[in-house]
Structure formats: C-alpha cells, structure tokens
Design brief:
38% of the residues lie in helices and 17% in strands. By secondary structure, the chain is an alpha/beta fold. An eight-stranded parallel barrel has the order 1-3-4-7-8-11-12-13, surrounded by five helices. The chain has a two-stranded antiparallel sheet with strand order 2-14. The protein has a two-stranded antiparallel sheet with strand order 5-6. The longest helix has 17 residues, at 27-43. It binds NADP nicotinamide-adenine-dinucleotide phosphate.
Length: 313
C-alpha cells in the first residue's frame, strides 16, 4: 500500500488549499472528524501516518489514537521546526512560526517521542538553504544521537523552488563519518516534477521517499477558476472516466508510477475524499498516458509563486 495519510489539515481548521468555504468551527466536531478519518484510514489498510507539532492538534490526536492500537505494521513520520500559533481562530493572520533552533528541536522532541515505538522517521520540517539548519553541527549531532538512541530514521521535508539543491546538500551531511539523513519528504506532482532530477541519487542511496502535495494543494482537481489548467483538466477527466475513478486517484497514481516512492501522502480531511484517493490503487497508467501527463510540467518558479497566492481556508 503506497498511500499514507498526511494530517496537516486534520489538526487545524485552516490550511492552504483552493477551497473557499465558511467555517462554522466547533472543537468537538473537528476532533471527532479527525478521529473518524484516522479510523477509516486504518480500516481501509493505510498504515503510515505523517504529522507534525506544527499541525495544531494533529500530533496529539495521533498519539492518543495510537494508544488504541497494537499493530507493529503502523509507522509514523513527524517533524520539528514549526509551531502552530493560530489557536484555532479562523481569522488568525499568522498560522505557524518556523524556528530551526536546538531549543525548538529539544522542546518538540519531548512531545513527539510519545509516538514511539511507531515513530519511524523524524524530519526537519521544511529544511531550506536559508535557515542554515543543514550546517548547524549542534543540531545535526543531536539528530544523530536521537537516531542511534531510539533507532529511528532521520529525514527532511522540502518545499520551494530549490528542493533539489536542498536534497543534494542533505545527502552530503555526515556525522561521525555516517550519512545522517535516511528519508526525504518532497513536493512532487505533474506540475512540479523537479525532484525527478535527484531520484537516481535517492534510489541508489536507498533513501525513503515520501511525496507530499501530490494534488498540488487541490490545484489538480478540476476548477473553473484556474483558467491556466483547463486543458490539463480535460486530459485528467478523460483518464478518470477511462479508469472509472476520480481525478485525484489519477494524480496520486502518477506520482507512484513515476517515482516508485515508498509513500504518497493523501491530504484528505474527510472519509469520502480518502476513499476516493484510495481508488488510486485500482489505476495503472500506461507509458503513453504517463508521457502525456509529463507535459503538464510548469516552471517551478511559477508553481511556487502560484502556491504562495493560495489562501488558508
Ligand atoms: N513542509 C512539509 O513538510 C509539508 C508541506 C505540505 C504538506 N505536507 C504533508 O503532506 C500532506 C498532504 O499535503 P496537502 O494536503 O497539502 O496536499 P494535496 O494532497 O496536494 O492536497 C490536498 C487537497 O486536496 C483535496 N482533496 C483530496 N482528495 C479530494 C477529492 N477526492 N475531492 C476533492 N478534493 C480532494 C483536499 O480537500 P479536503 O481537505 O476537502 O479533503 C485538500 O484541499 C499533508 O497532510 C502533510 O502531512 C508536508
């Protein structure tokens, strides 16, 4: 099963996407929804869950939910480096604050370690060249210590135009003569295919690869407002009809077929969408179809500029 569940939008009421809905927020129903999506994911066979302290309640909900499980086939990835600050306020101006410091790592590890023994990967949340986190020896040594002490993988997540540069830099990071990073969670979809340039390196070095934002935050789902993608939507609708699934299932399968990744994250926030995402397992795109979808690629600069314009909804 290559589909895994991402919990970014399950733990906080607003998240970056193309939806424009009025929120009538109640903590009780919000929490119940998150728990029921976790239950449904498990019932449907999903066994990997991705979370972060920066995702509001998500990590805590996952920790509590895991207490009800006794299944060593479950694995979890979490992250450190972002703090959720919106306090579930739909009108909040700032949702999260980034801090790649040793004190933030130590503070967030205190909570995240409750994910053990399910925790398989501990990631730097959005490692960038600017934050210099990949050169901070104190942090790298602390991560190497956690890796040895708790037998977990250490990873990074990447975002933005220079994902490939960040991945290459991370592959070179060593502590005591050993490569530090085992796992890479990156944005990849038909519009931003840039990480395919480093795929060979990741595979040759047997790294775990997780794809995030496989639906381009919802931009790949047919939408009359995104005029620039109407011809792409036509092709996606054609394939969806052919395989008797939704466009989401086609987009998720594309990522798996192109990269043969360990996990493709579903960002679904309700069970109906999750079930539709899972139909990806029924699809096998042929070479010609994959080649057609390859042509959807846009300049990463345009891709990330467009993402910056998306609202927290
Ligand atoms: N820097 C990082 O480390 C980082 C950054 C981004 C994401 N992530 C991880 O990747 C996961 C997935 O990312 P994502 O959620 O941003 O990206 P995504 O999968 O590209 O997009 C999710 C969007 O697609 C919509 N969707 C999914 N299935 C649908 C369906 N069948 N019909 C209609 N809409 C559908 C969702 O709507 P609904 O909400 O209505 O279901 C949501 O708005 C996150 O949960 C997180 O774990 C990590």
């Amino acid at each position: 099963m290559y589909l895994a569940l991402g919990t970014a939008a399950l733990g906080r009421p607003l998240y970056i996407n193309i939806r424009h809905v009025q929120h009538d927020f109640s903590m009780e129903s919000f929490t119940q929804n998150a728990q029921s999506v976790l239950d449904e994911a498990y019932r449907l066979g999903i066994r990997h869950f991705d979370t972060a302290p920066g995702y509001g309640l998500a990590e805590k909900l996952l920790i509590d939910w895991l207490q009800t499980k006794n299944d060593d086939s479950i694995t979890v990835s979490t992250k450190w480096g972002y703090t959720y600050v919106a306090d579930f306020n739909p009108n909040a101006k700032t949702h999260e604050v980034k801090e790649h410091s040793l004190s933030k790592l130590n503070e967030q590890w205190q909570d995240s370690k409750a994910l053990l023994p399910y925790l398989s990967v501990y990631q730097i949340h959005s490692a960038t060249l600017e934050s210099n986190v990949l050169q901070n020896r104190t942090i790298l040594e602390r991560l190497a210590f956690l890796k040895r002490r708790y037998a977990i993988g250490i990873g990074i997540t990447t975002t933005g135009v220079n994902q490939t540069e960040v991945i290459k830099k991370a592959l070179d990071v060593e502590v005591d003569g050993n490569q530090l990073f085992d796992s890479f969670q990156c944005t990849y979809n038909m519009l931003d295919q840039s990480i395919s340039k480093v795929l060979k390196d990741l595979k040759n070095q047997q790294k775990v690869l997780l794809v995030k934002e496989a639906l381009a935050n919802g931009r790949l789902l047919p939408n009359s407002k995104l005029k620039q993608y109407q011809s792409q939507y036509k092709e996606l609708n054609f394939l969806a009809t052919k395989y008797n699934v939704g466009v989401d299932a086609i987009a998720l399968q594309y990522c798996h077929a192109k990269l043969n990744v360990d996990w493709v994250l579903s960002g679904a926030t309700n069970s109906a969408h999750l079930r539709q995402n899972l139909k990806t397992l029924e699809v096998e795109l042929n070479e010609e179809e994959l080649a057609n979808l390859d042509t959807f690629k846009i300049d990463p600069k345009d891709y990330w500029n467009e993402r910056k314009q998306l609202q927290w909804n």
